[in-house]
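User: Good morning. I'm curious how zinc ion would be positioned relative to this chain. Could you predict the structure with it bound?
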Amino acid sequence: MTTGISAVWHDSDQTFELRELPVPEVEPGGVSIRVLRTSVCGSDLHIWRGDGIAKDAPPRDPFVFGHEMMGEVAALGKGVDTDSLRRPLKEGDRVVFSYFFPCMKCYNCIRGEMGACKFRMGRKPLDEYPYCNGGFAQYYYLRPQQNFLFKLPDDVSDEEAAPINCALAQVIDALHVGRVKFGDNVVVQGAGGLGVNAMAVARDMGANKVIAIDGQPARLDLAMRSGATDTININDFPTPEARIEAVMELTDGIGADIAIELVGFPAAVEEGVQMVRQRGTYLEVGHISPHSYASIDVQQIVSKQIRLFGIQHYDPWILPAAIEFLRRNRDRYAVCDVVSDVFPMTQIGEAFAKAEWQGQASNKITRAVIAP
Ligand SMILES: [Zn+2]
Ligand SMILES: [Zn+2]
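Assistant: Good morning! Here's the predicted structure, ligand included:
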């Protein structure tokens, strides 16, 4: 039996353990992936910190996480000889794929809302087939009939491709839902991996101003190279009132047409909804941890007629569109420079420690990537 190494996370002592797990025998219709790159996404940092988990909660069972990844086809199940666009596919081809598995036969799926499937398959215990279902591992398994995978062109490198299936796809979906229009002014709260991608996508969709808000100078610098037209450094504008005022000034007192929240702290929502104009749109993406309560004057949402959307996952068409977005914009924006550091799997603990930005005055890592 072939095996592959997975980085198994233990809540009990807050460490990763490198463990050999079986590589699944591929079922008809399934695809086994040899993972080449997996990034440390902001939501991985939430899991690693234990954000949203009660202090007295028992440790979770050891598990493998990581979802922002790309790889090459290790084995094709019977009946699979093309990608999801009917292009010939063989072992060794580099691919991107969605990291969630819609059931394809529920109320939402039959409406084409695969990203909203409530029955999508979750993580399985480590001793249960197919064993490999986390991204910080050498192998990952795409389940039959529930997978969407797309061949990567040669000119997109592994590092460039890793953030496609989460950071890039997620913000494309959000800005598509929010309907960025030609000439819109857009606020992006948070200039991490999702943030800088959102800035470039907003500009590509025709945004006029893109205002980046963050507290890390290196991120704001990358933001300016990734399509932001203006930045608000929270160290220079230390209060929500000052930041809201700064947005108003940059938009001639009108407010942003669209603001997108990619920080994942409730206070960001409290101030962000005040940055949008009358009948503006607020896109909430960042909060993936439970118990994220914000205090908002709902009357303001009503009287300002704010369009508020919660966004998670995406529909499959976004992935090939994201690949083409990268090829179209890589010379224009620094979106391909988001990945700043590559670590071998043996240094995954170090990669997380270095990627941690909370409580750091300055963190030069914009996206850490593991090469399993
Ligand atoms: Zn992610
Ligand atoms: Zn479904």
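The two ends are 19 Å apart (CA to CA). Residues 41, 43, 67-68, 166 surround zinc ion (ligand 1) (CB under 6 Å).
Let me know if you'd like a different ligand tried.
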